[in-house]
Amino acid sequence: MASDDHFSIAVPRQPFSYPPAFQHAGLFTNPRKWSWWHLLTVAIALLALAEAFFVLIANARLQAKLSPIRVDLREYPSIQYHPLDTKKPLNLPKNTRVYHVAKEFGPASMGGMGMILTAITTAQQQTGLVQVSVVLPYYSFLKSDHIEFVVNLAVDVREGWSQRPVSVPFQVSRLEFLVDNVPIPVYLIGPAQRHSPFDLAFQASDALQIYYSPKGLPQEWKDLYFVKAAAAFLLHQASAKSGETDSGVDLVHLHGATNAYIAYWLTHRSNPRHTRSPAIVYTLHDYLDELEYSNTIPNVHKFLDNTNDTNLQRYMHQGRLFMSSLAIDQANVATFVSRAMAQDLVEDKLDFHYKDLVMDSILRKTEQGRFFGVTNGVDPGLLNPFINSQLTLYNFQYPAFARRLLDQHVFQQHPDALSSESDIPISWSLSSNAEDLVSTAKKRAKEWLIGKDMLKEQDLDRPVVLYVGRFQYNKGLEIFDEACQYFARFNMMFVIIGQPNNYPLQWVKALEDRYPKHVKVMSTLEEQLEWLVYYRAAADFVFVPSLTESFGLVAVEGLLFGAPVISTGVGGLGEFLIDRPSQRSADLVTVQPTASGATVVGHAKYNAYIFQPSTLEASIADAHQDYQRYRGDCYLHEESILRMMLNAFSLGWSRSGQQGPVYDYLRLYELAISDHASKT
């Protein structure tokens, strides 16, 4: 980089003529008026123009499309995956201070990540064993009278031709967010104060805009600004000198690749005063998009305190820094959101794009005994069909009688009762009152949608199949046309609700034109917010044809509303979906009439119709056949619905005997803190 003293100007020794506009100013018409400050002014102006030109060229290069990454394919040693010992007694110190860092949470949730983080922090706080906080960008749409100032901090960013560090000030605020009356402190990292372009950071009109960056602020700059500012705040909190009553950080839990770089800043901090660095847990929520996330080296250097740091070189490939492998190595413990898929990753049973960028880090962590899969839990929350406000508004929330039945089974059933290998029957004491049946509420939802012209009259007597998700290739949209043929053949209604992505929206909408009697498409956020919960309540099946899936939240949500899943069963879906047997036994369900209704004893365990591309038609045919069978007997239908819902409610974050994902994470926190202490 050129320094300031590279710029100079030659001053003419003989007078000469200038244009009239300049002559009028008098400066150039009389050379005796040239003084050292005139020369300095001109030099500064030229320097400013040069720096502006440099910034424009640099931005243009950074915004240019990068060439695809080329990596050498390799074979990896066979390493056996060892799951977390969930029977080990939990010895995490009470009131351990845990800070989660993410881009989504609570009201700032665009998709599954925000819902999952909101659920896990709430469940952790409810245990009473940890003090949970969240660190989040201060999005401009977050408005509340209860947001309070916490601290002013600053980070250094390199600017201009010289790339000298410049202090960029920012403010941290605090909001106490209530989930089920459980308070979660949320620390909001604000945009830069009066410092362009970082004063534009986190501008968003709603949650759908949180991953976009306004014109003038490159996306990577926004991401790198947040991670450095968040790390500065975490180190401030962890420092004994912070002086705050809520100071102290025992562990930082990083979620997703866009926040992974925080692990570097926490472990390679430049300020020696920070002696109480926290332990780190890093969670991969996805094995495709997250592994591809990277930042260009010039952008990374812009935020580095020491551009000669060699610790980052192993994570650089073709001019980009890949964050996931960096965070896996820097973290004390790394996790993936599916137990089964974590095992497949380690044992080389899963092939995926950019695998070779991350496998060394995963295998190193596995050999150290610090890489684990923790399958996500489910928190019905506001989506709970028994209490959802949109459903109660029109009086077709699911009946309280069914809720009591489910509660009894969730808390009293044998842990293995829902396993596909289990021969333990599930017994239901059903009521003869139709208002006590979930099937009645589902029928009422259908009737309401028909009245609103959102379903057809014939849909009351035929299966409604629901797809919810983004319109992208890895969600299996290429199979939709074939599926629609079968839905039409078996006279089933297919409702498609989602957001545009990399799969052409016009191709999705063309299905409705091609099959007008059997397909309905809704592709806007407004439609989804207004109608989705009613379609969930009315649906008889959900369709999840994903090619890849780390967990499969949409499938769980389908079960939560009593709908079996027609699915590929890939990835994390296989951990909770049980395929319908190809040969059905006549005595899978028995019905014994009673004075108040009937006792239904079910031996069936399945909750899904799993298909391969070649068996899609057969799976849809099986689903249609079962629907016709249930229509003839309300108790058989109710048993099927309750079995689906029981599967969903049994996937809670917290389960009896200190079991469930929330306690799995607490055990990992204990391991991470112990590992961190041994190193420091």
Mean pLDDT over the residues: 86
What is the general shape? globular
> Mind describing the biggest β-sheet?
9 strands, mixed
In quaternary terms, these chains amount to single chain
Please tag this protein with its features.
single chain, 680 residues, alpha/beta, Rossmann fold, 3 domains, 9-stranded mixed β-sheet, 6-stranded parallel β-sheet, 20 helices
Description:
The structure is a single chain. This protein has 3 domains: 4-56; 96-378 and 664-679, Glycogen Phosphorylase B (Rossmann fold, 3-Layer(aba) Sandwich); 381-649, Rossmann fold. The model is unreliable at 1-29 (pLDDT under 50). A 9-stranded mixed sheet has the order 3-4-5-2-1-6-7-11-12, sandwiched between helices. The chain has a 6-stranded parallel sheet with strand order 16-15-14-17-18-21, sandwiched between helices. Strands 8-10-9 form a 3-stranded antiparallel sheet. The protein is an alpha/beta fold and 680 residues long. The protein is built from 20 helices and 21 strands. Helix 8 packs parallel to helix 10, helix 13 crosses helix 16 and helix 17 (553-560) packs across helix 19 (634-649). 42% of the residues are buried. Helix content is 35%, strand content 19%.
